[in-house]
Amino acid sequence: MIRFAIVPLLLALNFSMCKKNEVVSQNPQPGASSPAAGTTTAGGSPGVAPVAASPKITKPVVDQTAQTIIFCYHLLVDKVRYPGTEITPAAFEAQMKELKDRGITVISMQDLLAWKRGEKNIPPRCAIITFDDGYKSQYEVAWPIMKKYGYPFTMFIYTEGVRGGSLGGGGAITWEQLADMRDNGVDIEAHSATHQDLREGHTITLASPGGKKTRTKLTGAQYEQWVQNEVVGCKQLLEQRLGIKINCFAVPFGNYNEHVKELARNARYEAMFTVYGQPITFTSPMDSIGRYAIEANKPKVFEDAVKMIGASTSGGAPVAEVGAKDLATQPADGETVRTALPLIKANLSGIGQIDPGSVQMRVSGLGVVPATYDPKTGTVSYQVTQKLREKSCSVFVSAKSQGKKVEAHWTFGIEESATVPAAPAKPTPKK
Ligand SMILES: [Zn+2]
């Protein structure tokens, strides 16, 4: 089996390409900013009185009107030579201070994911800080600043770019530094193995273990083997070297497609990130979460992002939760079913007058699904058509009742033999 690696000589070039390409990729990806089908906002008509007290309404669930912006930084240097990816420590710190001064809370990536799962609230206006590529300056310069402000953050690492890897030069972070960050609560996530365009047939650079470099376009089985290592091998290596669980994948340059998304989903990544900055809402698709790449020569990107989140309305109409047992759900809360293709149903007639157009169902692992609602019976149902992958599945049903949003959620189990197995484990690539 031929194992490919990049020629170390290309290191400097590759980094500068990374910079250039990530600057170029500021153009919005078609469709990336369009909200998921069936997007609902929790905005009830102002002035409409809440539904008369119903014993079924128990507790508020997560604030679905919250929004977050995600920043992506690269190198911190005193003297900027490549403004596309570099920023001075002073400018970086000024931005961290500005978030604080503007009352924008910095939250962790895992809090964002928990919010998207409906498990945890986040503040109405918040931000997430990420660092790409694994530079020593992120450990030595950025981290102390983040500690000073008490901000959590995420490191997106491409494994061959860690010191000692085929692309890990003098400016690269070391595995020991990553372990130190891990021990102190820093979130470490995946950014491929060799940081290249992940789409089939695009020009990439490979090197044989002997060091011979080849610019080539891979297709078919050769491409599949290569991209598997970029998406899955990289995750396994980070998990094994650091003893952590990886659930986020930042796509190099934002260059990917449906096939790459499918690979990432099969590898159980929960979220995929690009560099097409946009505010992230409750319904933003998890496989194309945009980040604002901050560059020394474009301070406006930061200012615009901050304004974007500043302008968003906080609060919104309250959401009330209805107990799932009152909806005669199928499968029932806590039940374990034998199929990965269940029929999911709930009876909303107990809630009261429902606006039929407002009924929405979300299923964990699938997002918003095209459920049907029958106003006569008050039943919302959806036949799962794509096998569920996890052992447990959470369903969220929401609707508007007299201007107020109500929601129910429940969780059922799927017998493991019925679920789609995770991608088979591959041997860890050895350095
Ligand atoms: Zn990168």
Describe the protein in words.
The chain is an alpha/beta fold and 431 residues long. Helices cover 24% and strands 22% of the residues. It is built from eight helices and 21 strands. It has helices spanning 11-24, 89-101, 109-116, 136-149, 175-183, 220-242, 258-266, 299-311; strands at residues 67-73, 75-76, 86-87, 105-106, 125-132, 154-157, 187-190, 203-207, 213-217, 248-250, 271-273, 292-293, 319-321, 336-337, 343-347, 360-363, 367-369, 372-374, 379-383, 392-401, 404-414. Strands 1, 4, 5, 6, 7 and 12 form a six-stranded parallel sheet that branches. Strands 13, 14, 16, 17, 20 and 21 form a six-stranded mixed sheet that branches. Strand 4 (105-106), helix 3 and strand 5 (125-132) form a beta-alpha-beta unit. Residues 1-55, 312-318 and 423-431 have low confidence and may be disordered. It binds zinc ion (ZN). Zinc ion binds at residues 18, 132-133, 191, 195, 252. Residues 18, 132-133, 191, 195, 252 line the site of zinc ion.
SSE blueprint:
Blueprint: H1 11-24, E1 67-73, E2 75-76, E3 86-87, H2 89-101, E4 105-106, H3 109-116, E5 125-132, H4 136-149, E6 154-157, H5 175-183, E7 187-190, E8 203-207, E9 213-217, H6 220-242, E10 248-250, H7 258-266, E11 271-273, E12 292-293, H8 299-311, E13 319-321, E14 336-337, E15 343-347, E16 360-363, E17 367-369, E18 372-374, E19 379-383, E20 392-401, E21 404-414
Parallel strand pairs: 1-5, 1-12, 2-3, 4-5, 5-6, 6-7, 10-11, 13-21, 14-21
Antiparallel strand pairs: 8-9, 15-19, 16-17, 16-20, 18-19, 20-21
